[in-house]
Amino acid sequence: MLIVDGLSAWYGEAQALREVWMRVDEGEIVTLVGRNGAGKTTLLRCLMGLHGAHGRTAGTISLFDEDITGLAPHRRARRGLGFVQDDRGIYASLSVEENLLLPPVNKAGPEPWSLKRVYETFPALRERRRFPGTKLSGGEQQMLALARVLRTGARLLLCDEPTEGLSPLIVQQIGEILREVKAAGVTVLLIEQNVHFAATVADRHYLLAEGRIVESLDNDQVREREHELLEYLGI
Ligand SMILES: Nc1ncnc2c1ncn2[C@@H]1O[C@H](COP(=O)(O)OP(=O)(O)OP(=O)(O)O)[C@@H](O)[C@H]1O
């Protein structure tokens, strides 16, 4: 589905990504793990086409066998890429339903979700549809942020650390949300520092260090090396 080949990125003269190679297959949940400053957010932003304002990039990105390297973000969105930013981008003064109706539904996109499908998949959002976005719990806000991107027709969600700063109970809820998303046939690439959680929700993991993919790990390897990885990540 997604193949990244030799992707490098710079901020001015400073190189943040160094010939990153990775692939994500349809239906998988894959995590990107790495210390602060390793380049995780930069990588997601490059995939979405959002790095351009900061500096140059090199390498190629292909999605569904099409080279999307030179495409603008909205064109990538039309081809099925969706970016769930770490600030969740929820409008405080709008209700849940207004937040859901806000993004332009991408008719040219592969598979935009109707409101009905959103509410069937996430009944909690239906119950809270008249609530202002900020009255939701952290888990519900994350659900709303994901649902908004699914409304645009995303087939591959790029999630920037959805569990950051949330309590263990809410992290668990986010795990359930991600499993629902996967069951609905959506593929996910997410930044995740909580390797224990990552091994419960994802299929595979890439370890990023100083802008390079240094290891590809399966769940058993993550579980066996959990302590070592947590120490390495400084958690
Ligand atoms: N806007 C920017 N201008 C200059 N350098 C930047 C900018 N954003 C990130 N960097 C640098 O690029 C490198 C990678 O940063 P990035 O934010 O991608 O890492 P990260 O792995 O996502 O870390 P974190 O978890 O702290 O966000 C770091 O050295 C960082 O200082």
Structural topology:
Layout: E1 2-11, E2 14-24, E3 29-33, H1 40-48, E4 57-63, E5 66-67, H2 73-78, E6 81-84, H3 96-101, H4 115-121, H5 123-127, H6 138-151, E7 156-159, H7 168-183, E8 187-191, H8 195-201, E9 204-209, E10 212-218, H9 219-224, H10 226-233
Parallel strand pairs: 3-8, 3-9, 6-7, 7-8
Antiparallel strand pairs: 1-2, 1-4, 4-5, 9-10
Tell me about this structure:
By secondary structure, the protein is an alpha/beta fold. The chain has a single domain (2-233), classed as 3-Layer(aba) Sandwich (Rossmann fold). The chain has ten helices and ten strands. A six-stranded mixed beta sheet has the order 6-7-8-3-9-10, sandwiched between helices. It has a four-stranded antiparallel beta sheet with strand order 2-1-4-5, with helices on one face. A hairpin with a 2-residue loop joins strand 4 (57-63) and strand 5 (66-67). Helix 6 (138-151) runs parallel beside helix 7 (168-183). The longest helix is centred in the last third of the chain and has 16 residues, at 168-183. It is globular and about 45 Å long. The site of adenosine-5'-triphosphate has 12 residues, from strand 2 and helix 1.
Biggest pleated sheet: 6 strands, mixed
CATH topology: Rossmann fold
The helix count comes to 10
Low-confidence stretches: none
Helix proportion: 25-40%
What ions, cofactors and ligands are bound?
adenosine-5'-triphosphate
Computed Rg: 17 Å
Q: Give the topology string: H per helix, E per strand.
A: EEEHEEHEHHHHEHEHEEHH
Numbering strands along the chain, what is their spatial order in the largest sheet? 6-7-8-3-9-10
Could you name the CATH class? Alpha Beta
What percentage of amino acids are in beta strands? Answer: 25-35%
Query: Residue-averaged pLDDT, rounded?
Result: 91
Structural class determined from secondary elements: alpha/beta
CATH homologous group name = P-loop containing nucleotide triphosphate hydrolases
